[in-house]
Amino acid sequence: LRIVVLVSGNGSNLEALIAGCATGEIPACIVAVISNRPDAHALERAARHGIPAVALDHRGFPTRAAFDQALRDSIDAHAPDLVVLAGFMRILTPGFVAHYAGRMLNIHPSLLPAYPGLHTHARALADGAAQHGASIHFVTSELDGGPVVLQGEVPVAADDDPARLAARVQRIEHLIYPRAVAWYAAGRLRLSNGHATLDGAAI
Ligand code: GRF
Fold it and tell me: Is 45 flagged in the annotation as binding?
């Protein structure tokens, strides 16, 4: 199974996915990594592992639709079975999302449906939340709103600041993303009629 990973930044989740493919936990191969930011550290990580690393700078396109068309062409040149968003920080147009319906996953740093959007850790702290975490979900046209596949919870400590809490969430991200991608690669995870299923049962 062929995976294209989209990134914008550090790429620690990419690294966890690469490791999962290398150990065989994920029965698949990452065939390309594409970043909308040319300076993303994730591109260096990909190159270090011999994975084609492509920079597609969104600032070079006149409209969001033009960027999304170029991104789609770049992805489809690698003929992926699955597109994985790993810290990809661009909102995607409905047409783009529809093209990859049921074959695009995202990771979001909150226990969805709580805290879609940005600044999730600060918002959880401001609310005095006792639990926080990360969610893997199928991507739909609703921002951070697609069917949830898997979540990882972490406790919030009394003396947490957003950076400390983010670090704790990231450790759980690196466990749950390879697991969810492995399910997909093994044919166990599907999106059917708008619902995520694992081994045929609703999640
Ligand atoms: C992760 O926390 C992810 O949930 C969020 O962006 C971060 C990406 O981190 N969407 P990295 O680039 O994988 O290290």
Answer: no
